[in-house]
Structure prediction request, 924 residues.
Amino acid sequence: MIVVIGSAEKSHELNNPFTAGERIEMIRQALRAAGVDPLCCVLVPVPDAEAHTAWVSQVVAYTPRFDIVYTNQALTRRLFLEAEYEVREIPLYMRAEYSATEIRRRMLENGDWNSLVPKEVYDFIREIKGDERIRDLAKTDNAEGEQGGRKGRS
Amino acid sequence: MIVVIGSAEKSHELNNPFTAGERIEMIRQALRAAGVDPLCCVLVPVPDAEAHTAWVSQVVAYTPRFDIVYTNQALTRRLFLEAEYEVREIPLYMRAEYSATEIRRRMLENGDWNSLVPKEVYDFIREIKGDERIRDLAKTDNAEGEQGGRKGRS
Amino acid sequence: MIVVIGSAEKSHELNNPFTAGERIEMIRQALRAAGVDPLCCVLVPVPDAEAHTAWVSQVVAYTPRFDIVYTNQALTRRLFLEAEYEVREIPLYMRAEYSATEIRRRMLENGDWNSLVPKEVYDFIREIKGDERIRDLAKTDNAEGEQGGRKGRS
Amino acid sequence: MIVVIGSAEKSHELNNPFTAGERIEMIRQALRAAGVDPLCCVLVPVPDAEAHTAWVSQVVAYTPRFDIVYTNQALTRRLFLEAEYEVREIPLYMRAEYSATEIRRRMLENGDWNSLVPKEVYDFIREIKGDERIRDLAKTDNAEGEQGGRKGRS
Amino acid sequence: MIVVIGSAEKSHELNNPFTAGERIEMIRQALRAAGVDPLCCVLVPVPDAEAHTAWVSQVVAYTPRFDIVYTNQALTRRLFLEAEYEVREIPLYMRAEYSATEIRRRMLENGDWNSLVPKEVYDFIREIKGDERIRDLAKTDNAEGEQGGRKGRS
Amino acid sequence: MIVVIGSAEKSHELNNPFTAGERIEMIRQALRAAGVDPLCCVLVPVPDAEAHTAWVSQVVAYTPRFDIVYTNQALTRRLFLEAEYEVREIPLYMRAEYSATEIRRRMLENGDWNSLVPKEVYDFIREIKGDERIRDLAKTDNAEGEQGGRKGRS
Prediction:
């Protein structure tokens, strides 16, 4: 099984707060916590492509060969379907709670988010001060748009 | 006459669903349907530039020489004016109906859009399943932001 | 003192209407108008980086050596803090009025903006027709999204 | 028939002296000179991709649909073969003489190059001072490497 | 242990013939063939950065945390030293023979290269026709430079 | 007078060993050493453009307004001539000795290079260990090509 870590170049954005390397560490810890054999998975960070039409070939270039694509994202699904891959949905578990959006929301509001992630992941995020980073990213000088940073920010 | 197909690298976005190649095919079919001599036009796909200030020189580099720019886009108009080109408006015909936005809206709602495009273009879009693509792009997993895809997406 | 002119590749956007070169001219005129010795400052335009994580090393690469970072932007502050720089706030003067957002708002509405900038800067903006540019950028053909222009526009 | 004008973003290099737009004008003139119906061809400038693995999908995205690829370039052939396209060679006519390399060599040495191109193309190149441009590009200050210019120059 | 697969976006070049995904598969097979516990390693493809000065922060962003860098490349060593990492050399085994350059040379000349790689890697390369790809990439139409392909090719 | 520091994103290459920021510091020290009023000059780092045809508009966008271009580089001269700027040569002083190439050659061979630069520049380069950097960049593992680093390296 290959786990693609998409938008690998992104981090330090409210919807994408962690670097690819931090996401790799968290996924490895979550798998270990769940008792999954880490041998089962190849984690591959893949940066965004220059164009949506290059996305499929970029994923293919960065990863070992695969036959079936699992995704719940409409765009990813569409692009792989047009490239004639078999695409399947990922069954989600208690979507309303166990979603990155909900977890980030609670971090922002200093709510209880530790019950939503494995203890190992919680410890990791605290160690790298990830929740503090998210709260910092939410603060913006409202009188002015942010300027420094990443190309192509909206 | 040169027809610039802008943002040529873009596709598979709700406001830009078709590839440059698909747009070339549609324009050629629309011209043929309108009985226009296809010799009249040179269609040139031009990707977005790294900076607005490079946009004029990029259009100039990709296209045969020209003297007058026809556009209704405020930014394009401004950039060519500052580069000392003559810029003119394109008279639009029944703008409320014959607009890409209206056509895409009807596709999304499975409304009647075939009356708004030439039959040849309608057949082409159906053949490449373009309306299905647009409906797919409109579906997003609302609990999470889309991640995979094109650099610089907002 | 080094003044970083961020997003140096951007211009001709409502929130970023001026080129890096125009911003250099305005800052030099404002310093001169304030009687500041221009020798005190090195103005350095720095383009946005490909990734937020590359932003700090890009600023370091473009500028003479420095020890302390002054910024009021949450993202810039966060990135430099994580890279172990000392980061300080810039005390702002009458923020509600003397903000770029307020000045641009008045330009758009043909209001009185000349009282908010030094006379030299006012003359410069008029000379390059900067207020006209901002009013032009605000005009968009509402039936259609803008297309030509800069990669990664949202 | 679709004619792809590759490396469309390149120009002003010794091996790639002309812009995509200039190449479009020359090919149109050569076709006209040869009595070929210009309706036969769609000329499509395609910029280089970020990665070789994205090249095929980029060509597909920029062009109308096609089934067979004609090329004499080993890399292009290989990439399309791996993407399962049929690839055929282009029979060349008097290769030693009618080659861009030979023509550029003669331009550099002020030799007789007008016998190697159609009169219309000769006139066009003279009009845009293309031969002078090539001789200029060949001049370099040998004590120093060139610096300004295009990203990724070797 | 983290193994960085550098220049991850490159492939189909004589000195870089394989995609990042193919390189991942080969390294995993070589580790398995050597009886190394695959759990020991995290393989991380990292694309080249926009600037050498961004390379260190890009590696840091793509990978789990690390303390020591092992490399025999002078540039990589220099960049990490300047960023105050500890950098060590990798002891090489029978360098003259077991080098990628020597293996590629033998592939090109249809020589005996299977004795230089583990059987599993040999089988993989034959399965994806990697040796044929390398021989294809070496063929170039000498009268003309290659044009299509990757940005920034020299 | 505006001094453009070209290829501002480059550094850590044998022909381009210093960052833009380091080059700014050196030029300021050389000017001061020569007794030139630093007010005379605006130093502006400008990164390479995506295409040669965008280079002129990029320089214009990054710099205060100017009328005449001084350069000894054939490409820069050509591009500004085609954009209808007046271009002049820079008279060089004792070119054989006072050239960056000669200075770098001596650094590599541990020769006497301090007589070729102002004392302040010599001290700066020693302080940042610039000569050591150049000697490091010259060392390459000859059996293998370098891989990590900057996009578009040849």
